[in-house]
Design brief:
Number of strands: 7
Largest sheet: 3 strands, antiparallel
Helix content: 25-40%
Strand order of the largest sheet: 3-6-7
Structural class: alpha+beta
Radius of gyration: 19 Å
CATH topology: Creatine Amidinohydrolase
Distance between the termini: 29 Å
CATH class: Alpha Beta
């Protein structure tokens, strides 16, 4: 799996988008199951977004999907154990900084935030080895509106089907070949 966390700037404003893609172009069965849990957690959080919604409600919605899912898959024995595989918060503000500050307990119309659930199962975890070394985060940028949200990063494929479809496309760099180095030649920066 390749996890890419990209913070970009344009005219002084920031974005923060993360995608996790399979290195071979297709998800394994276990990677698919974990990816889908993260995707479903993000969707649960998106359903909460709107003017006046509490941050804690969105966070709880996402965490419940992940912890219940990890228990159901047998990755964790209970929700407390499952929590260790989701070690960070759900969201942060973006704007003039990639991690803008915000102190309101509720979302306000016009706020731009990230929604970024993730699951990280390190090697040596107390679960079947087939789950080891799977790490998935999906992060998108959303504008909070009166009655919901506008997904600002919708151009980046999010679903398993769309990611595998994109990975199957040919690329201009597929046949790119670097010239061979001359023996003994030192290259440095």
């Amino acid at each position: 799996m390749v996890l890419m966390d990209v913070g970009a700037e344009y005219h002084g404003y920031t974005a923060d988008v993360t995608r996790t893609i399979p290195s071979k172009g297709k998800f394994s069965n276990e990677e698919k199951l974990i990816y889908q849990l993260v995707y479903d957690a993000q969707e649960a959080a998106f359903r909460i977004l709107k003017d006046g919604a509490k941050w804690s409600e969105a966070s709880t919605a996402a965490r419940d999907v992940i912890t219940n899912g990890l228990v159901k898959l047998g990755v964790a024995k209970d929700k407390k154990e499952a929590d260790k595989y989701y070690p960070h918060g759900l969201s942060h503000h973006i704007g003039l900084d990639v991690h803008d500050r915000g102190a309101s307990p509720s979302m306000k119309k016009g706020m731009v935030i990230t929604i970024e659930p993730g699951i990280y199962i390190p090697e040596g975890s107390n679960c079947d080895k087939k789950w080891w070394s799977i790490a998935v985060r999906i992060e998108d940028d959303a504008l909070v509106t009166q009655d919901g949200y506008e997904l600002l990063s919708n151009f980046a494929p999010r679903s398993i089907v769309d990611i595998e479809k994109m990975a199957a496309q040919s690329s201009a760099v597929d046949d790119f070949k670097l010239p061979p180095l001359k023996s003994g030649e030192k290259k440095g920066f």
